[in-house]
Amino acid sequence: MPDLVSLQQRLGYTFGEVGRLETALTHVSAIPTRKIASYQRLEFLGDRVLGLVVSQMLFTTFPHAEEGELSRRLAELVRKESCTEVARGWHVGPLLRLGDGEIASGARDNAAILADVCEAIVGAVFLDGGFDAARALVERAFAARMHAPRRPLRDAKTALQEWAQGRGLPAPTYEIIERTGPDHAPRFRVAARVDTMPPMEGKGPSRRIAEQDAAARFLSREGIRIDQ
């Protein structure tokens, strides 16, 4: 396969058996006779290795974080979108082995395939170089994302519920104050209440969105950040 040397340079790892890297880049559509392996088994392995390494990274980096926060950070880091970004950073798309149909459909930049290949490469490095090599690869690729999550680690309603529970207060309640507009374009006004504290109102085109808005406004009033 072309340019695997450059890919290994981008990975920061040189394979002892480059065939493992080739397998990690091989989509099932490229092997209709099944005489060679696709990346599916490596993806299965890499997914578990990735989760373990990222868990260890989080445990070490955030020594005061509770289990709930660590779980949210883990989910954010290993989600498919993050793996897709990593694969694109490695520029694996042009090197994928694909069937003609997949090539025609633009699969070289297919987010789901790229995410799978990212995990497959982690699995291939683990098989080729062991856990330390895989850990180093994951740390290089995911460390910056660990410190700068691209979206809030919690939604507002979850954050408000955890905030209330942490203070021994009842769970928040939400009440529809007003529903206006036609059925195809409604507007909701909802009040979020926690115990005897003053409620906060939120608005939105659905009850769910209005509840999230009310919870976010409640937290803002109390000086609580959603990502805390």
Features:
about 230 residues; mainly alpha; Ribonuclease iii, N-terminal Endonuclease Domain, Chain A; Double Stranded RNA Binding Domain; 10 helices; 3 strands; about 55% helix
Q: What percentage of the residues does DSSP assign to strands (E)?
A: 5-15%
* Share in helix: 55-70%
Radius of gyration: 23 Å
C-alpha termini separation: 46 Å
The major sheet is characterized as:
3 strands, antiparallel
Walk across the major sheet and give the strand order.
Answer: 1-2-3
Say how many strands there are: 3
CATH class category of the largest domain: Mainly Alpha
Low-confidence stretches: none
Task: Describe this structure as you would to a colleague.
The model has no long low-confidence stretch (mean pLDDT 89). It is elongated, with a radius of gyration of 23 Å. It is built from 10 helices and 3 strands. A 3-stranded antiparallel beta sheet has the order 1-2-3. The protein has helices at residues 4-11, 18-24, 40-61, 67-78, 80-90, 100-104, 111-129, 131-147, 156-166, 207-221, and strands at 173-180, 187-193, 200-204. With 228 residues, it is mainly α.
Question: What is this entry, summarized?
Answer:
With 228 residues, this protein is mostly helical. It has helices spanning 4-11, 18-24, 40-61, 67-78, 80-90, 100-104, 111-129, 131-147, 156-166, 207-221, and strands spanning 173-180, 187-193, 200-204. Helix 3 (40-61) packs across helix 7, helix 5 crosses helix 7 (111-129) and helix 7 crosses helix 8 (131-147).
Topology (elements, then pairings):
Elements: H1 4-11, H2 18-24, H3 40-61, H4 67-78, H5 80-90, H6 100-104, H7 111-129, H8 131-147, H9 156-166, E1 173-180, E2 187-193, E3 200-204, H10 207-221
Antiparallel strand pairs: 1-2, 2-3
